[in-house]
Amino acid sequence: MRSLGLAPSRRQCLFRYIERVHAAADPRYASSLAHGLALLDAFADAPAGLSNKQLAERTGLSKASISRLSTQLLARGLLLFDAGTRRYRLGSSALTLGYPLLASLGVRRLARLPMSQLAEELGGAVSLAMRNHRHMVYVETCRWHQPSAFKPDVGAALPLLASAVGRAWLASAAPTERAQALAALRAHEPAQLAAWAPALAQARRDFAQRGLCFSPGHFQSEVHAVAVPLDVRLGGERLVLNCGLPARRLAPGELAGRVAPRLLALARRIEQEWRAESAGTAPPAAAWPPQPAPAPPARRRAGDDPATAAAQTLARGLDLLACFQPGDEVLGNAQLARRLGLSPQTVVRLTHTLVQLGLLRRNPLGSGYRLGAATVAIAYPMLAGLRLRALARPGMLALSQRIGGAVSLGLRHQAGMVYVQTAWRTDNRLLPPDTGAVMPMLSTAMGRAWLCGARPAERRAVLNEIAVRDPAAAHRHAGVVERAMAQFARHGHCSSRDFRPEIEAVAVPFAQPVDAIRFVLNCGVLAPQPLPARQVLALGSALTELVQELEAALAP
């Protein structure tokens, strides 16, 4: 799974080719699971959504198959269906799949601020990437705040051959690792491999001489990039640091002469600080709520038809991915079988298929599996399509710096909230939520603000869902909605210390949905003791001011 960046016809041809290869050579490959996940991949360049017919054209699947498989994706919030336009689009669960992987990459937290500073100073984008088969996937990206057509984001997938970040990975790989990657490229992209052979040879020379690699407009003609592999391994995976700048803003020789040394210095700084932190005491982990464990799936009965079995296989694969939680970096087949209530043989088939798709990766340090970079790539079309994220980023960064805390943008996810962006310029004592983190509705300022901003029917529906899903939480927070609505009526914001008692959180909802999504802007500051009322009011006023500025910018 990845954002291929191909025209629909080419994507369908490639999907069919891969399917034939696996079906013929690999009896353990669960085709129905791959078919269902291919529906998610089809949204790579379709921010407006896709109809049943368009999904059929892009994947090569029948309309009947798409209807059956989409039922499972809809039930888990991975897809949404707009009855007015008769189109599907990615749902908020697409954001949550990769969150455990992002949360496990501690170097992102350490690197985010210096990456952001360098991006501002150079006027470009600085990103961290990890490999997913024949692509590199961004797991962190910081970019210049000025408007630009060049807008990389978390989850973006870049080809190994044409990108600086891919070339840096290949040039720095161990011989066996590089040989395996080149063999896969030779099998799937022989013409591309031959065409880029001279550039790869130059990349190896550049890496040997300078420790970095270049791509002067080879992946995107308007972007020149340089990349440096980090001497940092997380779960056996190597990360690469990349910097891309608009070609029109670069003077001849500037990429190699000015940008490359700055990126190399940043890489060495990150490595040094990561080693120092790893040798000392790590900052305390944030106490995020555990995700609800998937219910054990129903076992297939002898009379089940193949169509039902196909949908069930997809459901089981999705439930398996949901087993991974922050802190669950490695899970083995036996653990997964126990959690899901499935036979070991079934789990082996599911994990084998998910590894082939890049959603899982085998643990190189021992047995078991880790989430793969493709779980992050799934969310890219949705993240890239949220125009409010790009618009809000500069103001969020400025406010974060001003208050010394984290400023986050979120939307509803089932009976909770999910973060789609966090701006953070503070010290390591405060570990804010990351993209894809799910927050409870009733105990957080963000959740309460969403309830206050929602229409009465929306609010009742969500509260009913909470009462059914988590009656203990509904009982524990009895009366909180009424108090939150009274606070919102008086001050225009909601506050809470219930989720993390050492954090003062304040949130403000947007007055109207943006592109049919109701957003909330939230801030959190470290405050071991409750802040004075005037400081809470000041935080609420600052958030309200930023929300109003963004609403004015969005107005037609």
Automatic annotation (TrEMBL):
| UniProt protein name | IclR family transcriptional regulator
Q: What is the lineage of its organism?
A: Bacteria, Pseudomonadati, Pseudomonadota, Betaproteobacteria, Burkholderiales
What does UniProt give as the signal peptide span? none
Q: SMART domains recorded for this chain?
A: HTH_ICLR
Record keywords: DNA-binding, Transcription, Transcription regulation
Where in the sequence does UniProt note compositional bias of the Pro residues kind? 286-297
Domain of life per record: Bacteria
Region spans: Disordered: 278-307
